[in-house]
Amino acid sequence: MQRLLFFIIIAGIFTSCRPTEFTPKPAGYFKIDTPAVHQYKEFMYPGYPYQFEYPIYSNVERDTVFIKDNPNNKYWLNINVPSLGAMINITYLTVPSKDGFIRMVNDAYGLSSFHEKKADYIREETYRNKYGVTGIIYTVGGNSASRFQFTATDSLHHFLRGALYFDVTPNADSLKPAADFLEQDVNHFLETIRFS
């Protein structure tokens, strides 16, 4: 009787310990909540050689990391959008000469082309705003570190370069809603940038 009971318990253990059939969940991403509307305020700080409008749901901070290395970088900024984990990095340089300007344009192109390794494509588009500022917008497709990069210049004295970054591993699909939303803010920045 004890043997029969022992075999029943052992048989029960083996039949009850069969692995259950696993059904994976379909792939998906977290929902990204973007602000309801695009609204802007003026960036016009005393002593800065440029002004622009930036989103009210962001904050502007000096890029203190590079100021320590080079005091000429004192006009470098970060426009942070904490709710989306995004940052628009702004670098500013004065144009020393015609050759210096050409070198700056080539450097900006090189920095944008650096993303070709991960990019599906890089689309270049020139623009000119109502203040006479011209430049190039680089739209980078695929899983690159930066979706938008741009330059803004008066071609004589001022040269500004910017790039949109997210504080996550690049994944074009999951970042698409946030990147699409911020594209309008980048374009608004370029429409309103002006030099003093």
Automatic annotation (TrEMBL):
It comes from the Bacteria. Pfam families: GldD_lipo (PF25593). This is Gliding motility lipoprotein GldD. It comes from Flavipsychrobacter stenotrophus. The lineage of its organism: Bacteria, Pseudomonadati, Bacteroidota, Chitinophagia, Chitinophagales.
